[in-house]
Amino acid sequence: MIRRSPGGKQRADDAPVSEDRWVLVALAGALSFVAMLDMNIVNVALADIADSFGVSAGTAQWAMLAYQLSVVSLLLPVGRWLDGVGARSATLTATTGFALCGLLAAAAPWTGWLIAARLAQGGFGAVLFVLMPVLALRSVRPERRGRAMSVPATLGPLGAVTGPALGGLLIDHWGWHSVFLVKIPFCALALAVAWRVLPRDAGPRPPDRRSMADALLVATGVGVLVLALTRAPRGAWWLLLAAVAVPPLWWWLRGTGGRPVTGVLRTAGLFRAHGAVLALAAGFAAMHYVVALHLQRDTGLSATRTGLTVLAFPLGMGLAGPLGGRLADRYGPRRIAVAGASLTTTGLLLLLLLPHGGWTPPEVAWRLALAGAGMGLNGGPTQALVMGTAPPDRAATVGSTVQLARSLGFTLGPALATAAWGLSGGARAGLALAAASAFLAVPLLAWSGAGTTGRTAAEPGTSSNRLVKEPRS
Would you state the pLDDT for residue 8? Predict the structure, then answer.
């Protein structure tokens, strides 16, 4: 299906794909790595930032929270906006803005400057997050979609888990400013590729007044919800703040901005697939939090040995990610996504069954590698399953809802694990919660798409243009 811009001109980036453009898939993967790296790399710099500006640790933490809140709050409005904007102009604008905000953050003379730069950087980061799956989707033929989706789906989480280790190395040698500068070379390379490869378009279209009002409602509701979940481990009373998020989100859902989004998600059972994405992300985040804390606090393992042990998870994920994409293209994304979620659940259950004295680095590492391999098998196929089902003119909207589900899972997992740990007095309850969350994704993925009148475009033997589409509201 060829989409036309509001002015009636054909959008070049929506033209049918006749040949695979893997350089754009690599671009999507690089942007995914950079955006997720920036989500976590600042964590290890907070103490140095607090000392440098003479502020409290709580104030310095807003250098991280401002970025996270801005990203998650703007995902849905950005998705709706990107459905009417060319990929080239959006990529160039977002990548340039992301890099400039990184420079401003590194040059910050006081805390308020740093927080404002990070808040703006999160807005550009939200555009990058939504662009990743859309670029991969539009760059290859349907029969190669699983492999394409596996690139950003694997590199993104790898950026998240390697961020703290890379950040610590940079701070030890060049100070906290370097964590904001390390992404600049990646952004420069991405700009060069986008400028040369992406077809020209009409340029960015500014959102109208109604879209701005919808963005304000979503940003308020989602921002308050994420803030409540982020602060919950420091005090359960923070969860009461989540009630404040209900009215603005309800008004948005009932309005002209929210109805088209929910209509798209009803297409081909996408609500269940989004639930699976959220559940797996929550299980992954809860596991990562509990294992690292348990190894250091309860078994006395050093920070270095703990870091090396938990690296088994991204190692397994990185090795299995490309395989998951190839298998999805051959056997269909749903089967491989279910198999990956099942493998992750198995790894977490094996970790849960370890006796207290059996938490040695080798015993923990191979179980984490197994769980990571499951996540690698799952990521690309799940993304292909969801994005392949989305109507072509709503691809960015669906991409934003997937990213929102994943971001909420990453935020919800540690909060729930902390609550479970505190109620039971041990790490086993937190691990049980992580395993249960991963297991929940298995039936959600197996049943996603049930009751639809068509198959996803990524399933074998299906044309990319034969998509089930909800009427617009």
Answer: 40
> Are 442 and 342 in contact, with CB atoms under 8 Å apart?
yes
Average pLDDT, stretch 445-449? 77
Question: Which residues 6+ apart lie within 8 Å of 196 measured at CB?
Answer: none
pLDDT (average), residues 307-317: 84
Secondary structure letter of residue 10 according to DSSP: B
Higher pLDDT, 439 or 466: 439
Which amino acid is residue 253, in one-letter code? L
Flag the least confident range among 92-101, 231-240, 265-274, 358-367.
231-240
Q: How many other C-beta atoms lie within 10 A of the C-beta of residue 110?
A: 10
By three-state DSSP, how is residue 157 classified?
Answer: helix
CA-to-CA separations, 301 to 230, 287, 309, 361, 393, in angstroms, rounded:
27, 17, 10, 9, 51
DSSP string for residues in 322-377: HHHHHHHHHH-HHHHHHHHHHHHHHHHHHHHTS-GGG--HHHHHHHHHHHHHHHHH
User: pLDDT tens digit string along 61-74?
Assistant: 788 888 888 888 88
How far is Cα 232 from Cα 413, in angstroms, rounded to an integer? 11
Question: For residue 439, what pLDDT band results from cuts at 50, 70 and 90?
Answer: very high
Helices (H), ranges, 140-257:
145-174, 178-181, 184-197, 209-231, 246-254
Q: What share of the chain is helix, strand, coil (3-state, %, to 5)?
A: 80, 0, 20
- pTM check: above 0.90: no
Cα–Cα distance between 462 and 452 in angstroms, integer? 14
* C-beta separation of 223 from 69 below 8 A: yes
DSSP state of 202: S
Query: Length of the chain in residues, anyone?
Result: 473
Residue 160 to residue 168: CA distance in whole angstroms: 14
pLDDT at 457 (0 to 100): 39
What 121-124 contacts at long range (C-beta under 8 Å, 24+ apart), as own/partner pairs, is 121/38, 121/67, 121/70, 121/97, 122/66, 122/67, 122/68, 122/69, 122/70, 122/71, 122/74, 123/70, 123/71, 123/74, 123/97, 124/93, 124/94, 124/95, 124/97, 124/98
CA distance 386 to 32: 18
- If residue 265 lies in a helix (H) or strand (E), which one and from where to where? helix 258-266
From CA 246, how far away is CA 384, in angstroms rounded? 31
Q: Cβ neighbours of residue 392 under 8 Å, at least 6 residues apart? A: 1, 3, 14, 467
Domains (ranges, CATH) in the chain? 16-206 (1.20.1250.20), 257-449 (1.20.1250.20)
C-alpha distances (whole Å) from 261 to each of 79, 219, 268 are: 10, 15, 14
Give the separation between CA 81 and CA 204, rounded to whole angstroms: 10
